[in-house]
Amino acid sequence: MTANDLAIVILAAGKGTRLKSSLAKVLHRAGGRTLVEHVVRVGAALKAKKTIVVVGHQAEQVAAVVEPLGAETVLQQPQHGTGHAMHVARRALGNAKLVVVLPGDAPLVRAETLKALIAAHRAGNAAATILTAVLADPSGYGRIVRKSGANVSAIVEESQLTEEQRELNEINSSIYCFTLEKLWPALAQVKPNNQHRELYLTDAIAVMAAKGEAVLAQLAADAREALGCNTRADLAEADRTLREWKRDALQNDGVTIQLPETVLVDPEVTAGEDTVIEPCVQLLGKTKIGARCTIRTGSVLSDAILGDEVIVEPHCVLAQSRLDDRVIIGPFARLRAGNHLKAGARIGNFVELKKSTVGEGTKAMHLTYLGDAKIGAKTNIGAGTITCNYDGFHKYPTTIGNKVFIGTNSALVAPVRVGDGAYVAAGSTITDNVPSDGLAIARGRQENKPGWASKKRRELAAAEKPKKPARARKKSKPRRTAKKSRRR
Ligand code: UD1
Ligand code: MG
């Protein structure tokens, strides 16, 4: 159900000076997504009438992230503070009565928390409700000055804290629910009374409280939800927490994760029951893993689709490839984009595949490159087989049928076809099509020369025999002394 009186404003125009980066702060990533994408997605769960993102630094790049998610953008140029950002969003808010304000640098807040915030705001008939958290180390955050009970009298920024207020450890998350008809007159009274000459949204709180409006504070269920990412350390903390939550979700779906803190999983990844993920694995992008699979240590899967009972042995790298049921790959296999390995196929160590289809039960176990190849079922690709798919200008296909035997160290110069049931002799360079059930041998014929090696050795020995110099014999020790020394 859409909440017709509710809009969302996401503040995402700031540069993020403390990150020391050429990239705008909200475009930095944590947990596999940009910060601002997390915030837009959590906002979507509120089913608000509209979501407005205030953009400024690298506005086009930020818009390119949020607009496909259904948000609209307004430009704040230059950026004169969080209060100024709200002024900029005013027209786009139209006739909304309530607004949830979210900073674009707080990716950990959860939808349930925001729903509870709105409920508390409505129930308390408040002008403003602030999501707060109690932190052991509140430094850097604005502090909540409580009036009585749930009522707040002010938010004081770190730089303006009195000695007494420094003791306060309840912080402002920058996540608020406002009743707009109360916010605008208060914001109109806010002055840029700070060293940055900015209009602080936080200063509107004291104005409302002084007018006797209800300003409430609602503690977040989990203090981590209030984290705002101002520094690289904050980003690492957000990433750690988001990754932990994602792993927890997979474990709840019946996936075993060994040494979970070493495993990195992107948000859209799924895995089926009884799949085992070993330490130091990365599951990235839109990777989907079936049931009862094993992903062994050190493997990195990006946008890979795996059926059931697939085994990825240690240290494999897979991108944009499909592996059907019971495929086994690796260790040390590399699948570049566009491969399809059909049921029961086996790919071994130091095998690289690109845009190739490998048929059911087909094996390529060692030291092979298969590019632009289409291989049928139950075929054996010998060690060291190379598809020569590139002539320096264009790529060409190699087609290999069912039950084919490609002998070791063969080069298949594409475009070329090997028919069903054919054999290619080891060490061949195949430039012509091989007919079904035929044998192709394409290599220099062997010539044996009996006795050649021993003759050569004799010649070499004769040429290199050292001649003893005549004087050396005279100088040798007397025989008796020599015998004595041997006995010892
Ligand atoms: C802000 C709060 C602080 C709170 C903290 C929580 C103010 C003055 N302070 O501080 O009380 O404890 O968040 O994380 O609000 N932005 C704009 N336009 C601007 C300035 C900022 O869109 O002109 C955006 C930023 O891109 C950012 C968000 O507003 O996403 C918050 O700004 P930031 O500079 O991170 O404020 P903090 O110093 O963290
Ligand atoms: Mg911040």
Features:
39 strands; binds magnesium ion; binds uridine-diphosphate-N-acetylglucosamine; 488 residues; elongated; single chain
Structural description of this entry:
- This protein is α/β, with parallel strands linked by helices and 488 residues long.
- Helices cover 21% and strands 30% of the residues.
- It is built from ten helices and 39 strands.
- The chain has a 16-stranded parallel β-sheet that branches. Strands 5-4-1-6-10-7-11 form a seven-stranded mixed β-sheet, sandwiched between helices.
- The N and C termini lie far apart (104 Å).
- The model is unreliable at 481-488 (pLDDT under 50).
- It binds uridine-diphosphate-N-acetylglucosamine and magnesium ion (MG).
- Uridine-diphosphate-N-acetylglucosamine binds at residues 11-14, 25-26, 54, 76, 79-82, 84-85, 103-106, 141-142, 155, 157, 171-174, 200-202, 228, 230.
- Residues 11-14, 25-26, 54, 76, 79-82, 84-85, 103-106, 141-142, 155, 157, 171-174, 200-202, 228, 230 line the site of uridine-diphosphate-N-acetylglucosamine.
Question: What is this entry, summarized?
Answer:
Strand 4, helix 2 (59-66) and strand 5 (72-75) form a beta-alpha-beta unit. The radius of gyration is 35 Å and the shape is elongated. The protein has 488 residues and is an alpha/beta fold.
